[in-house]
Amino acid sequence: MPLQRTALVTGASSGIGRAVARLLLARGYRVFGTSRDPGAVSDPVPGVEYLALDLDDDDSITACAKAAGEIDVLVNNAGESQSGPIEELPRAALERLFQVNVIGAVRLTQLVLPGMRARRRGKVVMVGSMLASFPLAFRSSYVASKAALKGFANAARRELAPYGVGVTTVEPGSINTGISERRTQYIGVDSPYGEEYRTMLTALNANEAKGIPAGDVAATVLKAIEAPRPKPLYAVGSNAPLVFALRRVLPRTAVERMVYRKHGL
């Protein structure tokens, strides 16, 4: 009888993380899901074992990895969405964003890799964003954090492949998960960028309201996990096959204009 596989999914209290946890449970995994406050999860998935994780706290990251023990799959999904003109982004906000979206995820990955390497099996999935491939004005900090996460994954693939550990990135496009209400924003009341920022934000929120459900992203994450040799990048939503094809054949400036027009700029 095959051993039960174990997965650790960060940010599993809602949205993509919750949907991934449900799918993995259905596939027979033992699933640990994380939340800043497991006791406050309003709609816990039956069967998911919730662990506390604050990616802004190294002690919390270490404790979470220790509590999960030996795992076969890590899905780095938790993160913050942030917007604002680059000129007006506070340093403290930037540092928190990169700690949560990048450094915390990398640190958790570092802690589970020795076990995966010793057992010569494992999958690490970084949940990024298509904005890392198609940058958008006024989302510079978020774009940069997701691009950094993808950079870590791409570079680490070769390091870990000889030990049977696969690393991949899943880039969702617009997703209808209610993230618009949770996005942190930094822009002055009298900002010179105010009009264009509000135009972008209105379009962004409308695109997300019409976006794909979290379950579609979760299905793509599962595809990456169960692929014998996962691809470096999986993209889903926002007409991903078409726009990535256009990105390969069109000049970069044309692709940038396409992204801006989609957001009213």
Automatic annotation (TrEMBL):
SUPFAM superfamilies: NAD(P)-binding Rossmann-fold domains
Gene3D superfamilies cross-referenced by the UniProt entry: NAD(P)-binding Rossmann-like Domain
Keyword Oxidoreductase among record annotations: yes
Keyword terms: Oxidoreductase
Protein name: SDR family oxidoreductase
Pfam families, A to Z: adh_short (PF00106)
Keyword flag Oxidoreductase: yes
Organism: Nocardiopsis endophytica
InterPro entries: KR_dom, NAD(P)-bd_dom_sf, Sc_DH/Rdtase_CS, SDR_fam
Every Ketoreductase domain range: 5-173
Family: Belongs to the short-chain dehydrogenases/reductases (SDR) family.
